[in-house]
Design brief:
The protein is α+β, with helices and mostly antiparallel strands. The protein has a domain at about 1-85 and about 340-370 and about 395-400: Uridine Diphospho-n-acetylenolpyruvylglucosamine Reductase, domain 2, CATH 3.30.43.20. Helix content is about 55%, strand content about 10%. It has 17 helices and 13 strands. It has helices at about 5, 25-50, 70-80, 90-95, 110-115, 125-145, 145-150, 155-175, 180-200, 210-235, 245-250, 260-295, 295-310, 325-335, 365-370, 390-395, 415-430; strands at about 20, 55-60, 60-65, 85, 155, 340-345, 350, 355, 360-365, 430-435, 445, 450-455, 460-464. It has a five-stranded mixed β-sheet. A three-stranded mixed β-sheet has the order 1-8-7. It has a three-stranded antiparallel β-sheet with strand order 5-13-10. β2 and β3 (about 60-65) form a beta hairpin. The longest helix is centred in the middle third of the chain and has 32 residues, at about 260-295. The protein is globular, with a radius of gyration of 22 Å. The protein starts with a helix and ends with a strand. The structure holds protoporphyrin IX containing FE.
Length: about 475
């Protein structure tokens, strides 16, 4: 256990809270340059050198980084009332997502919108989505038969992003994405890159007029145009059964008797689409990449889907028996956690693990470094699905693994996402054996607002 986390043992109240240890001016200056070159390397090294809680300048702005499960538990769960999203990371995200659920500052407006949307993500609603997921996945796998037959290399990341977008649009809003969907994906990828750059070096402000800021404004306008088109398309026809769109449209505040304004409706739809397709599509790309990298693991997944499904399309009832496939997914979400960073803002003075957190502090939580904490994950960089056997899970403290966050603002789409990842991985394994192209260099990380595979994942698909 590191010395910093050992401070948790000292009963608070007996020892007065200490100031959070600070990086030196020199370390911060070196860090500023390194952040721009390789943000992940800088963060991994900082955690190794400074332990589980320290004060640093992230992209030049003062932040306290916490990297211990007890500290994350404190901020996200036990004392969540004291931490909102009125911070640097989410202010930048709100430029794009406005007041939609994911970037909403918090408080009553967030609570009300979360309450409205919750029913669309219950287990029974997700069960209704599974046929959409398997139908759309089947379409993509059939398209891949042709390049597979030619032995061609396929860039899977873009195609998977399109699949994930179609799934979320059809499941939640009952609409199909055409070419406009592809344009929306390209726009958002560019937005994600501009926002990721801004997070590493927040100058000039996003509201300024410069080529990249003007481009950002144009991309946001285009994305808003796509949402307006979806709303019109959906209003133009009745849906057979209530979906998220119907819920949002009919949402009524019990106290005021008013519904969502048109702008609020558009913001929620945009936020839900981005939250729903971006992280899932990155996860699926990384899962495919890992299966191709580890032929023995891929063979075990093939054996499992063959014996459980016997050639059938997977249903929700099959998923609990696809246990090894799920372990591969869980381990991929540990090492390639797509929603890899988040931030909170301390509303009032607080103490974390014996350290003083003055009100107004931005607290940075990085799931990339957190899921590699050597005190909880032996040989943390090794990809090993065996970490997720029931025995291993029971052996670890509960909060050391949280790709979907925790506390009241945990991922609303967690069951949706896990069902989607499980079905798509199983169906891919039924159809194809996948390999990496010969001589391909390892794919690096592009740490945007979400964690992307740099340059995309390229694979060879072989019909089984
Ligand atoms: C593998 C896929 C996914 C991962 C790893 C993931 C991860 C996360 C994480 C870590 C958070 C919490 C962020 C924070 O505390 O600051 C979050 C929030 C959220 N996610 Fe996901 N997510 C995934 C897929 C989805 C899907 C498919 C949907 C919807 C269809 C979704 C909707 C949301 C929403 C609406 C929030 C904001 C909740 C709130 O603030 O109340 N996510 N997600």
């Amino acid at each position: 256990m590191s010395t910093v986390s050992a401070r948790l043992d000292s009963p608070e109240g007996k020892n007065p809270p200490q100031p959070v240890p600070r990086l030196s001016l020199r370390e911060n200056l070196v860090g500023l340059a390194e952040m721009r070159r390789d943000q992940l390397a800088f963060l991994v090294r900082s955690v190794r050198t400074h332990g589980d809680i320290f004060h640093m300048r992230l992209g030049g702005l003062p932040t306290v980084m916490v990297n211990h499960p007890d500290y994350l538990q404190h901020v996200l769960v036990d004392n969540h009332q004291n931490y909102d999203k009125d911070n640097f990371l989410y202010r930048a995200t709100r430029t794009v997502l406005r007041e939609g659920l994911i970037a909403n500052k918090g408080g009553e407006p967030w609570r009300r919108h979360r309450r409205i949307m919750q029913p669309s993500f219950s287990r029974s609603s997700v069960a209704d989505f599974t046929t959409n997921i398997s139908d759309l996945t089947g379409d993509l796998l059939r398209q891949w038969e042709e390049p597979a037959g030619r032995g061609a290399v396929v860039e899977v990341t873009t195609e998977i992003a399109n699949l994930a977008l179609r799934i979320v649009l059809r499941a939640l809003f009952g609409v199909d994405a055409d070419d406009r969907g592809r344009r929306f994906e390209r726009d958002f990828l560019e937005v994600n890159a501009i926002a990721g750059d801004f997070f590493r070096f927040p100058f000039p402000p996003l509201s300024w007029y410069s080529p990249s800021r003007n481009r950002l404004r144009q991309l946001i306008r285009e994305m808003d145009g796509f949402i307006a088109y979806l709303i019109d398309a959906r209003l133009a026809r009745e849906s057979e059964k209530p979906d998220l769109f119907t819920l949002l449209l009919n949402a009524m505040d019990e106290e005021t008797g008013t519904g969502l304004t048109h702008e609020q409706l558009a913001n929620e739809i945009l936020a839900m689409i981005i939250a729903g397709y971006e992280t899932s599509s990155n996860s699926i790309s990384w899962i495919f990449y890992q299966l191709a990298a580890y032929p023995d693991i891929q063979r075990r997944v093939h054996d499992e889907v063959d014996s459980v499904l016997d050639g059938r399309v997977p249903t929700l009832d099959d998923l609990p028996r696809l246990t090894y496939t799920r372990m591969v997914i869980d381990e991929t979400l540990r090492l390639f956690t797509p929603a890899w960073q988040t931030m909170r803002h301390a509303v009032d003075d607080d103490v974390i693990g014996g350290y003083r957190i003055p009100r107004g502090t931005d607290v940075y939580l990085n799931l990339f470094t957190f899921h590699r904490h050597p005190d909880f994950w032996p040989d943390p960089a090794r990809f090993d699905p065996e970490r997720f056997t029931p025995e291993e899970i029971a052996r670890r403290p509960r909060h050391v693994y949280q790709p979907f966050g925790s506390g009241p603002r945990h991922c609303l789409g967690k069951h949706f996402a896990l069902t989607e990842l499980h079905i798509i991985t199983a169906m891919l394994a039924q159809a194809f054996h996948i390999t990496r192209p010969e001589g391909q260099a390892p794919v690096g990380f592009a740490p945007l607002i979400t964690l992307h595979p740099k340059g995309g994942i390229h694979l060879r698909l072989h019909r089984r």
